[in-house]
Structures are given as structure tokens and as C-alpha cells.
Amino acid sequence: MDKKVLAIYYSQSGQLREIMDNFCLPLINDGVSVEKVQITLKNDYPFPWASKDFFSVMPDCILGVPAELESFTLKEHSYDLIVVGYQPWFLSPSIPINSLMLQSSFVQVVKNAPVITITGARNMWVNAFDKVKKLLNEAGANHVGTVALVDRHLNLVSIFTILHWMMDGRKSRYLGFFPKPGVADKDISNTQRFGSLTLPYLKKNEWSGLMEELIRNKAVVPEFHLIFMETKAAMMFKIWARLIVKTKKRKIWLTAFKYYLLIVLFVFAPIVFMIDLMIFKPFLPKYVSAKKRACLKLN
Ligand SMILES: Cc1cc2nc3c(=O)[nH]c(=O)nc-3n(C[C@H](O)[C@H](O)[C@H](O)COP(=O)(O)O)c2cc1C
Fold first, then answer.
1. Most exposed among 108, 132, 267, 275, judged by the fewest C-beta atoms under 10 Å?
2. CB of 181 closer than 6 A to ligand 1?
């Protein structure tokens, strides 16, 4: 098959690279030419993160401030499919991915091209997905499907484990008894299934129905209490970000934001979870499913 696919992504720990590799495997096995590009920043963020660096990227993530990418050359001018792997950072597309999507050479390549987005997140990807959708729409891309892989453990548990992973660098069990952080190995290898589902659409160059098929196969499963949390948190993050970029006491405000975030995650999030369980799910199922459907719209 003479189809050409570009798989472009950023990854610090290698998790998103593994996800992209698994998605692309059935395409490669079928003879599709897949060009994989891992982008990096000129001044890339060190991994593992130091706590102060981790929180200091928040304003640029929220406000969508691009950074300079290490230059890269694509083999083709156009592709039959572009797969974009992005990760949320502070409920926004990570700075490297946001920078890529604002780069004029990349905008030219995605224009009119079918695009599938794939994320490997902790569990809050909806707001970042909204921003990615907007950037793709502005670039004139044809967004045909999305996959969202998450850490399926309880929100409270994944806060501990991701912080351990990000600050330590190893995707290992925190204190020996917490579960492994991030997307589970079996979910990563199951991404091959979504690649297989994509193949017939790629062969026919006819994309209608792919997103519905991905949804049916649970490639993307929004959780109402997390959508609710994210919507409120995203509004607050914007206020914090605007304040922090204006202040001369950036360090102090970033520290205040760090504690604010921990309070939101450890106090507010469990309350929202309980309200969802006791009120929204049993009494407002139509409202919940409308909200979930809305965030699965591609444009
Ligand atoms: C600075 C930073 C902020 C993050 N914020 C979020 C977030 O808002 N929501 C989320 O689900 N995951 C968040 N994560 C987790 C990432 O989306 C991703 O799952 C993790 O960094 C592994 O990706 P990698 O393939 O780049 O290593 C964040 C990670 C970092 C480094």
C-alpha cells in the first residue's frame, strides 16, 4: 500500500513514544510507510523535573506561549494521515506540542490532511483536547479521530504516583506499595487495536465513521467528575497564569499556586467525585451524557 503517514509527538519519559509506536504497528505491518518524528525543544525541559521547574511552566502552558523547537525536516510535503501525539500540561497542550501546532511549516502540512490525535495523560485531558481541536481547526486540518489513554487509578492515587514519576524519573511504584504511575502497560499495547481500526479508513481515504468506531471501542472515555473539575480549574488557572506573568514576585506566586493546586486536588476533587456519584450520576444521567458527548466532538 502506498499510503504515507506522519506520526509526530513529544515525549519526556518515553510513554507517549510507546503509545505512538503501538498505534503505528498495525499500519507498518500492513505496508504503510510511517514516518515517526519525535520533536524536542531547543532548550528542553530536564526530566525528571525539579519541583520549582515543574510548576514554573504553568503560565506558558495556560497562556499558550510557544518555545523554540529544535529544527526538523519532514520527508514529504503532504501525508495521507497525520497522527499527532500530545500530552496535557496543566490542562493545556504541552509547550512543545503547542509550539509545533503554531509553527507555520507544520500548519502547512496539516492543512487539509486527515489528523488523528492521541494523548497519554494522567486523567485530565479534556481541556487540552479542546485547545488542540481549536489549533487543528484554525490550521484547516481534517480532524478525524482521537484516542485518550489515561491512568485508570483513582484520581487521588494518581496524584501521588505521577508526582513520584515526574520528580524521580522512574515509572515505578511509589514507596513500593502504590500502583505504577501513568498509562498501564496493557492499555499501551492495546493501542495497536486503535491502529488496526484506522487501517481500513486509511486504505479507502474515507474517514466518516472512524470517530464513532473509536468511541465504541473505548479509545476515549470521558469521566463527568473530571470534566466538571477541569472546567472549573481551567478558569482558575487562567487567572493565576495572568497574575503570575504580571507580578514581580513570580517565585512567591508560583509557590502559592503550587499549594492552591494541591488543595484543589486533595480537597475539592474528592468532594466533586462524591457529588457526581451521589447526585449527577443517579439523578441527572441525561445531563451527564450530554456533557460527555459534547467533549467528544471533533469540531
Ligand atoms: C508539567 C506537567 C503538567 C502535567 N499536567 C497534566 C494535566 O493537566 N493533566 C493530565 O492528565 N496529565 C498531566 N501531566 C502528565 C502528562 O500529560 C503525561 O502523561 C506525562 O508527563 C507523561 O508523558 P511523556 O510521554 O511526555 O513522558 C503533566 C505532566 C507534566 C510534566
1. 267
2. no
pLDDT digits (tens, 9 = 90+) for 258-292: 999 999 998 988 998 899 889 988 989 999 999 99
pLDDT digits (tens, 9 = 90+) for 125-140: 999 999 999 999 999 9
Instruction: Please name the residue whose Cα sits nearest to atom 14 of ligand 1.
Output: 89
Say how far apart CA 50 and CA 166 lie, in whole Å.
Answer: 9
d(CA 225, CA 120): 19
Alpha carbons 76 and 82: distance in angstroms, whole number: 11
- In Å, how far from its chain's centre is CA 174? 23
**3-class secondary structure, 67:** coil
Distance (Å, rounded) from C-alpha 37 to C-alpha 20? 10
The Å distance, Cα 89 to ligand 1 centre, comes to 5
Give ranges for CATH 3.40.50.360 in the chain: 4-222
Q: Which fold has domain 4-222?
A: Rossmann fold (3.40.50)
* CB of 241 sitting under 6 A from ligand 1: no
Q: Please tell me what DSSP assigns to residue 174.
A: G
Tell me if 261 CB under 6 Å of ligand 1: no
Kindly report the number of other CB atoms within 10 A of residue 192's CB atom: 17
Q: In angstroms, what is the span from residue 88 Cα to ligand 1's centroid?
A: 5
**Pocket flag, ligand 1, residue 127 (CB < 6 Å):** no
